[in-house]
Amino acid sequence: MRDEETAFGYRFGFAELPGRAFQLFRDISVSGVVLLALVLGGAVGVTASAQENPLGEIHTQPPPPPPKSPEDSRPVIEGAGNVAASGTSRRDSRLRVDVNLVLVPATVTDPMNRLVTGLEKENFEIYDNNVGQLIKSFSTEDAPVTIGIVFDLSGSMNSKFNRARRALSEFLRTSNPADEFFVVGFNDRPAVIVDYTSNIDDVEARMVMLKPENRTALIDAAYLGITKLRDAKYERKALLIISDGGDNRSRYTEGELRRAVRESDVQIYSIGIFDQYAPTQEEQLGPVLLSDICDMTGGRMFRVGDIADLGDIATRISAELRNEYVLGYRPSDMKKDGNWRKLKIRLVPPPGLPPLTVHNRQGYYAPSE
Fold first, then answer.
1. Burial of 257 by CB count in 10 Å (0-12 exposed, 13-18 middle, 19+ buried)?
2. What does the pLDDT look like over 233-273, one tens digit per residue?
């Protein structure tokens, strides 16, 4: 950016806007979603019925950051070409909720859905059941995540399967190298087709052997993914759903899935490869269901307009998992009543910035006696 042209501006694509100066990495936009995970001591889990495996056998199995310079302290809007450059990263913070401390991760996006990094503690306010809380700790981190992939292998995915499989590879290869994964494939029934692994080759080798067929048990598959995340190695947990339509085969209901999502500490994202014209009611309701369960956790559903964009969308989601703010507070209401508590984060951005959006989980259940 040329200082003689704008000392207090930054570039959105090709347009110069007034505001506080900060770095733009590349012109390619990145859609942002919030990452929020709440790990409750003794959190209520969900248990799925044992399923047969129609898709095949299960495949088994830093030093402290340097001091920030004044240049580093500026907010940054990330471009897709710099997905791993997220500003200061600290691994000494852990995601948890105990009787005294709640840690709430979140991400921030600009009006063009690009990630914004570089904000400070004073740029955030947090509310628990509409009561303002004192932020006790503040950090950014790229800690490892346990990620469950729920992959649609129903017959309607046949023409989209190869691109969707390559998009999954892009997602895995741009993730934190320490992340662990598993894959739930589903058509008539869900099955774990790749068990916990940090070896991307394990996932890719199994996926290339699969063939889409039969119907779509999407709800059962999401339920199984949430259940399996109870055995996650890391405290941060995410579920990525890749599907092209609604459910027409599951035994679990939408209501049961929504309850499981609300009670879990899982961040959910989805890539919706929907046909332009949905002939059935199930296909018409599929996008609504995916969008709702993602929003409940602070995630988002990414609708694929062009199948060629699948890889870019997968890379965006990977970037968002690696860019988050973590706000810690001690609730002013310390009752262990097991009740649902609403969460809200309000931004107080630096002067001159455009409207920014913070995304966070809708709430959490308080510990119970």
1. buried
2. 998 899 999 999 889 999 999 999 999 999 998 999 999 99
Report the number of distinct structural domains present in the chain: 1
Report whether 229 contacts 141 (CB < 8 A). Answer: no
C-alpha to C-alpha distance for 74 and 89, rounded to whole angstroms: 15
CA distance 331 to 131: 9
Token readout for 14 is 């090709």
Cβ distance 35 to 88 under 8 Å? no
Q: Which residue has the higher pLDDT, 46 or 223?
A: 223
Give whole-number Cα distances, 92 to 20, 29, 198, 228, in Å. 30, 30, 21, 26
Residue 207 lies in a domain: yes
User: Tokens at residue 152, please?
Assistant: 């649609």
Residue 333 belongs to some domain of the structure? no
Residue with tokens 């973590």, as numbered in its chain: 326
| Residues facing residue 191 across a β-bridge | 185
Across-strand partners of 328?
A: 103, 137
Backbone angles phi, psi at 140, to 5 degrees: -120, 150
Residue whose C-alpha is closest to residue 203's, from 235, 234, 179, 219: 179
CATH of the domain at 265: 3.40.50.410
Residue 178 belongs to a domain: yes
If one counts every other C-beta atom within 10 angstroms of the C-beta of residue 239, the result is: 26
Q: What percent of the chain has pLDDT over 90?
A: 56
Instruction: Kindly state whether residue 246 falls inside one of the protein's structural domains.
Output: yes
Q: Which residues contact 329 (CB under 8 A, 6 or more apart)?
A: 101, 102, 104, 126, 128, 133, 134, 135, 136
> For residue 54, what pLDDT is reported?
44
49 in Cβ contact with 251 (< 8 Å): yes
The amino acid at residue 328 is G
As given in the structure block, the two tokens for residue 242 are: 């890749």
Contact 209, 118 (CB under 8 A): no
Q: What tokens appear for 200 in the block? A: 């991307």
Range of the structural domain that residue 294 is part of: 146-321
Tell me the DSSP string of 31-52: ---------BTT-----PPP--
